[in-house]
Write a structure and sequence with these properties.
About 35% of the residues lie in helices and about 20% in strands. It is α/β, with parallel strands linked by helices and about 280 residues long. The protein has 2 domains: about 40 residues, no CATH class; about 230 residues, Alpha-Beta Complex (2-enoyl-CoA Hydratase, Chain A, domain 1), CATH 3.90.226. Strands 4, 5, 6, 7, 8, 9, 10 and 11 form an 8-stranded mixed sheet that branches. The chain has a 3-stranded antiparallel sheet with strand order 1-2-3. A hairpin with a 5-residue loop joins strand 1 and strand 2. Helix 4 runs parallel beside helix 5. The structure holds zinc ion.
């Protein structure tokens, strides 16, 4: 969002309306005029998704090396860390929604375009492994330009690694809900993010493998206007449902219950009631 000097108002990226920052915050960063969903930072996403104070981060201290000695990568990583206050473009951990425990991952586009390098992939893989071990559902919010080019092949390998981890979690009977937010593209879309038992997306998010420019070249210049949006992908069966940000938590809660989650403690109460106590 483009802020005007005093930080009281900002301009909607989609409709150019001037909006009060406070109003936008209250509205979960969704433009009240046109409904455009502005990108969220990790902390904002966790705050509107999980029960208050329930998040416990895992693997937060993992940091990327410079596996192929890419010029300027170390400096870029340092700059991204200090600009975002994060160690990587993905944060993973445990959390609770409506009393139901889960493993959660949230990507942050502000950290090097949410790109997936070795640490991003490792954290995703470990999140799936923990979910499988503890038989907990897993929810991952993706926002990514794709594989991190500064890590070359090491980054591309994360596609196979995260996909294999997702499969192992599936074999362990763990439900995986993949939430695609703006943008989810490239190697992230082409790996674990497409493997959800349920795939949700925020309205208007860019969701596609390559960009519009490549698509236009491939298809001889003709692209539908909503090409590579979540709505287009939902119409064509790739996404199960486009969910407004204000409804996301309740939809996730319903899905967790559908997949058999129960609020902590509730199963004991039900058992006691069934036993006539
Ligand atoms: Zn707007």
């Amino acid at each position: 969002m483009e802020s005007v000097p005093d930080g009281v108002a900002s301009k909607c990226q989609a409709c150019d309306e001037i909006l009060f920052v406070r109003e936008l915050e209250r509205n979960l960063q969704v433009c009240p005029k046109c409904g455009h969903h502005h990108r969220l930072r990790v902390a904002e996403r966790l705050a509107i998704t999980l029960d208050e104070g329930s998040f416990v981060e895992m693997d937060g201290d993992l940091v990327s090396g410079d596996p192929i000695g890419f010029p300027g990568y170390s400096e870029k990583l340092t700059a991204a860390r200090s600009a975002t206050g994060l160690n990587e473009a993905i944060v993973t951990g445990r959390g609770v929604i409506d009393g139901m425990p889960l493993i959660i991952g949230v990507a942050d586009f502000a950290f090097m375009g949410g790109s997936m390098g070795s640490v991003f992939g490792e954290k995703i893989a470990r999140a799936f492994e923990r979910a499988a071990e503890e038989v907990l559902p897993i929810v991952i919010f993706s926002a990514s330009g794709g594989a991190r080019m500064q890590e070359g092949l090491v980054a591309l390998m994360q596609m196979a690694k995260t996909s294999a981890a997702a499969k192992r979690a599936a074999l362990a009977g763990v439900p995986f809900i993949s939430v695609l937010t703006d943008p989810t593209t490239g190697g992230v879309l082409a790996s674990y993010a497409s493997l959800g038992d349920v795939i949700l997306a925020e309205p208007g998010a860019v969701v596609g493998f390559a960009g519009r420019r490549v698509g236009r070249q491939e298809l001889g210049g003709h692209l539908p206007p909503n090409f590579q949006t979540s709505e287009f992908q939902a119409e064509h069966g790739f996404i199960d449902r486009v969910v407004h940000r204000k409804d996301m938590r309740i939809v996730l809660s319903c899905l967790l219950r559908f997949f058999g989650s129960e609020p902590i403690g509730e199963d004991d109460e039900i058992r006691e009631r069934a036993n006539g106590r």
